[in-house]
Design a protein that fits this description.
It contains six helices and five strands, in the order H-H-E-E-E-H-E-H-H-E-H.
């Protein structure tokens, strides 16, 4: 199960057993997995932050990762990820070019606001050019989205989405190593 579920931890397996996805008796201590250890290497722990959020879409985190060294089969080299601070729901899109981020954010915003009947209120991003160009500023202003920009060189300030990106990339590395 460890390999099949992208090198999931023992805690993760126990959680799945509690939910009835797999048998409780079938979970044994995990053997040492070199792929897992090598792929989980990291620099520094990110501190946790608290924000005022009472419902979905009150406080969103966004980040654009890339360029990736290797293109996907569809030619994508970037992926923006959007995380809702309240529900921890995550949306990921794949982009060929960095400048597609504004268009994708606009489409995502329409989708989630229509489905939830709620508005995006606050958006935390880094100072990357994709989130600070005039089109994005205008979009935010027209829709009443408060912007929270992180200080340059401090990815910890947008830790929630950064940790998510790290998790995705660790799992990809696990699969590639395996």
């Amino acid at each position: 199960w460890h390999h099949r579920l992208v090198h999931i931890t023992r805690k993760g397996l126990e959680k799945l057993a509690k939910q009835g996805v797999c048998r409780k008796g079938g979970i044994k201590p995990l053997k040492f997995c070199e792929h897992y250890v090598l792929s989980k290497a990291k620099r520094q722990k990110f501190p946790t932050n608290t924000h005022s959020r009472n419902a979905a879409l009150d406080y969103m985190h966004a980040n654009l990762w890339g360029p990736l060294r290797t293109e996907s089969h569809g030619g994508a080299r970037y992926f923006p990820s959007l995380v809702d601070d309240f529900s921890k729901k995550v949306w990921v899109y794949f982009l060929k070019h960095k400048n597609e981020a504004v268009k994708v954010f606009e489409e995502w915003k329409i989708l989630v606001e229509t489905q939830t009947r709620r508005k995006v209120k606050k958006l935390r991003t880094d100072n990357g050019l994709e989130f600070c160009d005039e089109r994005f500023k205008t979009l935010s202003k027209q829709n009443g989205i408060a912007r929270h920009l992180t200080v340059r060189g401090t990815p910890q300030q947008n830790g929630l989405v950064k940790r998510f990106n790290r998790t995705i990339l660790e799992r990809v590395r696990c699969m590639l190593n395996h």
